[in-house]
Amino acid sequence: RADTAMYYAKRSGRNQYAFFSEEMQAISTRALTLGNALHDALDQAEFSLYYQPQVSLSTGKIIGAEALIRWHSKTLGDVSPAEFIPLAEESGQILAIGEWVLRETARQIKQWLDDGIEPVRIAVNLSYAQFQANDLPLIVSAILNEYDVSAKYLELELTERIATKNPKHTITILESFQQYGIKTAIDDFGTGYSSLSYLQRFPVYKLKIDQSFIRNMTTNKNDYVIVGIIILLAQQLEMTTIAEGVETKEQLDLLKQLGCDDIQGYHISRPIPADEFTRHFLEANIKSKN
Ligand code: C2E
Ligand code: MG
Ligand code: MG
Ligand code: MG
Fold first, then answer.
1. pLDDT tens sequence across 257-266
2. What is the mean pLDDT of residues 119-140?
3. Residue 73, SS3?
């Protein structure tokens, strides 16, 4: 679509009437192709959710999972959310996709309960456009009611960038979630611009330490120090900490020493489909066969 191409032209930082390079042409062609395919993706049932376990460092037990969207396009093959979520944000399709993610999560939790399996709390990522809507807490709560699922099984992730765009609005929405009994977490923490005074007023229960700090914390002193400070900060604010992108035993050991509560990352498991997640991580939670 023309406005998508224009968006890329503007984002290049040059005059939009300037020479349209081959590279820019390729990027906008890809954006157009993806945008068109994305249009039919919901109707064609091309989305699915993968689940990545979250584990407590003190008990070694699974405490939750993050739901991550996957798109298998019939025409384009697998497309990463890092590529299509920003496009869906641009086009407004993110609202419908975001609602699908919430519904699919509620449906899966209900399925586990019906199968006699005690679920773990599932964390869902929120987009900027979703978070802008004043009725988001009402929508989420209505979906939980519709599927007869307790709010205790759901967690919502908001990136630090989104949370800090309009702190007053953020506080209002987060307080509303709190009233519905829905826990919230700040995602990719450390990469945005939280003012400490606002952070302390955000009623979130968890900080997710961005994986960029975890990646080099065993070799880079600065990253190691930042991770330690985030953990201390969270402890003072009585928030839980989870480290994202933990890939090695060395990282796990350092995080444990620093007092981090939980971890998520390839060291435990990659994001996996629901059936695999059930077999590998919820086996111990099977209560009865209905
Ligand atoms: P995120 O929410 O920060 O999710 C974590 C990303 O890190 C996921 O990428 C996950 O697969 C990846 N990851 C997890 N452990 C490791 C590790 O040990 N090493 C490395 N290198 N990576 C790891 P993914 O699934 O590609 O998702 C990328 C981003 O797309 C997410 O970042 C999130 O911002 C967005 N996203 C994914 N699903 C949804 C969704 O349903 N709704 C919205 N609005 N955004 C989503
Ligand atoms: Mg996330
Ligand atoms: Mg993250
Ligand atoms: Mg991220």
1. 999 999 999 9
2. 97
3. strand
Q: What is the pLDDT of residue 25?
A: 80
d(CA 22, CA 26): 6
Strand partners, 186: 158, 207
Ligand 1 atom closest to 126 (CA): 44
pTM of the model: 0.92
Task: Tally Cβ neighbours within 10 Å of residue 203.
Answer: 15
- Average pLDDT rounded to a whole number, residues 208-224: 97
Q: What's the 244 CA to ligand 4 centre distance in angstroms?
A: 9
Confidence tier at 197 by pLDDT (50, 70, 90): confident
Task: List all residues 6 or more positions away from 59 whose beta carbon is below 8 Å from its beta carbon.
Answer: none
Q: Which residues contact 58 (CB under 8 A, 6 or more apart)?
A: 261
Q: Does residue 64 register a pLDDT over 80? A: yes
For every residue of 201-227, DSSP letters joined together read TS--SEEEE-HHHHHTTTT-HHHHHHH
Residue 160 confidence (pLDDT) above 80: yes
CA of 243 to the centre of ligand 3 (A): 9
Burial of 61 (0-12, 13-18, 19+ CB in 10 A): exposed
Helices (H), the chain: 2-11, 22-41, 81-91, 94-114, 128-132, 136-147, 160-163, 167-179, 196-199, 211-215, 221-236, 249-258, 274-281
Q: Which of 65, 74, 135 is nearest to 99 (CA)?
A: 135
Pocket of ligand 1 (CB under 6 A): 52, 68-69, 80-82, 85, 98, 101, 125, 127, 187-188, 211, 244-247, 265-266, 271
Q: Tell me, what's the ipTM?
A: 0.98
Residue 94 exposure: Cα atoms within 13 Å on the Cβ side = 21
Residue 277 tokens, joined: 């997640």
C-alpha of residue 125 to centroid of ligand 2, in Å? 5
